[in-house]
What we know:
The protein is α+β, with helices and mostly antiparallel strands. The chain contains 19 helices and 15 strands. A hairpin with a 4-residue loop joins β2 and β3.
Amino acid sequence: MAGCSTVEGVFGRSGPALGTPGFVQGFLGGVAAEEPRAALVGRDVLAAGGTAADAAAAMGFALGVTLPSRASLAGGGVCLAYDPRRDQAIAATFLPRAPSVLDPGSDRPAALPGTPRGLFALHARLGRLPFEQVIAPAEQLARFGTPTGRALARDLAVVATPLFADPNARARFARADGTPLDEGDLLVQPELANLIGLLRSQGVGDLYQGGLARRLAEASRTAGGALTLEDLRSTLPQLTTTVSLRLGPDVVHAAPVGGSVGAAVALRALAAGASAEDAAGAARAAAAAVRAGADPQAVLEGTTPVGGALPPLLGATTGFVAVDRDGQAVACAFTNNNLFGTGRVVPGLGLVLAAAPGVGAVAAALPSVLLISNAPLRAFRLATAASGGDAAPIALALAAREAMAGRSAADALAAARPAESDRLGRVSLVHCAGYLPRDPASCSWAADPRGHGLALGAD
């Protein structure tokens, strides 16, 4: 048996190569997402030796194909990432923002697309596999088709009548008889596949300042969105350090956006013995304060007054988490600011345009993500993302509290919540009670039983 290691050293590693599913033997980490096929894509990337950031880029692009109602590649979002090598957490913020000037001729003002550049920036910082490799599965899903998932089918059932007023949306999401695609129906998106193929071969920058940017600007005008080249060029993700608070020996990391800060404030309130209702109120107040311009770290520390009210928010968000075997972790939440954004599909590119926030009745969404690490151990403990409008922060905080109290991820998500968050909140969670990479056997992962997601890993 001792000779086996010698043979491997002389002739090289046997088995699949790096970048091929099966490369990782034993514990590979875990993923949880609100859309099953995106979770499968993320799991395969981890099995191929990819990092959590590789898996996140792959899953984010896959969601643009399998759940474009909430995570179009023309939308945006926010991600938290933890790098155990440096004991460093970063926030990547690429929310879909309104154009600098609204074209008076646009009847459905569109937001600027943040997702492609945002995921590219995150991958460039923490990825291992080539970017073109990790987004290739999304291209294949779009080109050869994927069965319509339950989450997408239910979103279509809610908005089919106004959505199908757009002939491009109707051609993409309707059956031959004009009814919306149902669960299991094959969804083929050749225009979107061609776009992802161009991003893979030419780079995502082309969508912002190259030939693809010109095509998007011109075609968005046809779709009533009227994006400009100047605004597309200036659409850049922000990679910053996280805002944080201490919770016992651990550090709770939040992104500097309202939903994430609100979730962290709610978790701290719950840890101090507050009721779920009081913690939910604290989360809403903190989110409103950040949205009104208060310093996120000051809100976390309780050194600035919080108050105000959030506008009515749609639960048009989705999220996922990914953790690799080395303890690198990513939690992301995505949004179009409305189900199917503007309700228009860009002709020739297949993109569902996100809705410009702050225009008409469209309010900016409330993406909610948290990460928990331990600085002395340089180790990861928990990653979670939630959707559900203003119910998301408290749903996330309650699930995180249950996990940190010693419950498995599945039990933490199944625990009761206040009525609104129990009805609307959807949480994806990975928790390693003994910390990672120290104790892989302590890790568990789960997708919310209230939703239609999937959690996967291997040990």
